[in-house]
């Protein structure tokens, strides 16, 4: 009996420790929430997305990466400092545009943009452990239409597609600790916002604006806006008055100034993409949703998966005439308008530069990982260019 009494406290202590360890693990892991974005992980490994790659010794030799020819859309930096300044978990990489820095076959990875390279370059002494990386943030309409020549050429991919080796998104919205865990909690926060008296519409004098440069986009956004303008006041800003607009805000010369003007004056921003393709959503959306304005989106991304509910308006859920009526309804009711801003204290939006950093950091870490998997993208044409991945010049009716 005395021996059993001695064993019992030890057993209870073991149960307590096991319970605490379980709770700790659950608290620090990602938690899935139906219909809502995932909350921020507290662990550095998960937050950087680098748990995907095996951690290696910092004494491993520097990995050299070549930017081949004109890698359009590259925004990260040059040298090893780019990885250090970005705070990469593994920063022992060196990236350069100088193709003579070392012989081609001695680069650990070569980054190539097919939209500028057009056809595969024949690296005569390519080594089996080199990684050729496809890099683009352009939709299929802006790529070479015959990509069959790149079959089995690339080992890894960096694109806007979520199923890339290293997804290069234009931005992301991350839930904070105060973000709702259930749909019911989100609804309660929306109600709180409506009762708060906060008025994001204060001082705004105009309804909606569209900033555009491509007047013949494959998404056919130009037709949608043309019909929309028949039923609601929509201002258009464009270079040299293209697309029926005004040369009022040259975004290329003063990007921040343009968005500040829009944010101060307008209630809605038309974040209409030039292509309606799987996963394709650009800075138009992330720039506007991070400001005091409601984005009206037209694109092929799963917006419900990347943004909080009731934080944007999807134009494809309405005909142009129906959308005009809804925008005017919100324009008349500041309380309903304010409800779209409920999420602001509970989420953090990041722009293109931050998420590009994650892709390049992960690339560096992957180069240091062992063992290398010998694999190639068998068909870039079917993976990236398949017509069913996009809607080509959809029809929008005036009804």
Automatic annotation (TrEMBL):
The keyword Disulfide bond does not apply. InterPro entries: Glyco_tran_10_C, Glyco_tran_10_N, Glyco_trans_10, GT10-like_C_sf. Pathway: Protein modification; protein glycosylation. Its EC number is 2.4.1.-. Residues 202-383 form the Fucosyltransferase C-terminal domain. Residues 61-171 form the Fucosyltransferase N-terminal domain. SUPFAM superfamilies: UDP-Glycosyltransferase/glycogen phosphorylase. It comes from the Eukaryota. GO terms for cellular component: Golgi cisterna membrane. Pfam families: Glyco_tran_10_N, Glyco_transf_10. It is found in: Golgi apparatus, Golgi stack membrane. GO terms for molecular function: fucosyltransferase activity. It is a single-pass type II membrane protein. Keywords: Glycoprotein, Glycosyltransferase, Golgi apparatus, Membrane, Signal-anchor, Transferase, Transmembrane, Transmembrane helix. Its main location: Golgi. Belongs to the glycosyltransferase 10 family. This is Fucosyltransferase. The lineage of its organism: Eukaryota, Metazoa, Ecdysozoa, Arthropoda, Crustacea.
């Amino acid at each position: 009996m005395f021996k059993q009494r001695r064993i019992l406290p030890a057993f209870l202590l073991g149960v307590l420790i096991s319970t605490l360890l379980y709770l700790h693990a659950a608290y620090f892991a990602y938690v899935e929430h139906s219909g809502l974005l995932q909350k921020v992980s507290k662990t550095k490994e998960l937050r950087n997305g680098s748990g995907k790659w095996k951690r290696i010794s910092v004494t491993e030799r520097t990995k050299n990466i070549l930017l081949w020819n004109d890698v359009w859309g590259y925004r990260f930096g040059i040298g090893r400092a780019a990885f250090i300044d970005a705070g990469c978990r593994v920063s022992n990489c060196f990236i350069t545009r100088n193709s003579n820095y070392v012989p081609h076959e001695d680069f650990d990875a070569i980054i190539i943009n097919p939209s500028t390279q057009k056809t595969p370059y024949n690296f005569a002494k390519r080594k089996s452990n080199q990684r050729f990386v496809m890099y683009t943030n352009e939709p299929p309409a802006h790529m070479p239409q015959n990509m069959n020549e790149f079959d089995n050429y690339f080992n890894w991919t960096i694109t806007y597609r979520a199923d890339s080796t290293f997804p290069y998104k234009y931005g992301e919205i991350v839930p904070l600790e105060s973000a709702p865990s259930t749909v019911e909690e989100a609804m309660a926060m929306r109600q709180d916002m409506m009762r708060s008296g906060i008025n994001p519409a204060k001082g705004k004098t105009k309804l909606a604006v569209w900033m555009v440069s491509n007047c013949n986009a494959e998404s056919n956004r130009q037709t949608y806006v043309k019909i929309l303008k028949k039923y609601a006041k929509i201002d258009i800003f464009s270079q040299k008055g293209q697309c029926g607009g005004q040369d009022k805000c040259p975004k290329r010369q003063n990007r921040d100034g343009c968005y500040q003007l829009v944010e101060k004056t307008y209630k809605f921003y038309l974040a209409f993409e030039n292509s309606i393709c799987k996963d394709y959503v650009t800075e138009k959306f992330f720039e506007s949703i991070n400001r005091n304005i409601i984005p009206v989106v037209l694109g092929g991304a799963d917006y419900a998966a990347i943004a909080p509910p009731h934080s944007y308006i999807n134009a494809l859920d309405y005909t142009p005439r129906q959308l005009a009526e809804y925008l005017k309804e919100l324009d008349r009711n500041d309380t309903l308008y304010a409800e779209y801003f409920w999420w602001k204290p509970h989420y953090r939006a990041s722009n293109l530069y931050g998420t590009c950093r994650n892709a390049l950091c992960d690339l560096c870490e992957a180069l240091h990982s062992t063992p290398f998997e010998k694999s190639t993208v068998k068909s870039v044409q079917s993976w990236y260019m398949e017509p069913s991945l996009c809607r080509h010049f959809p029809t929008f009716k005036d009804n």
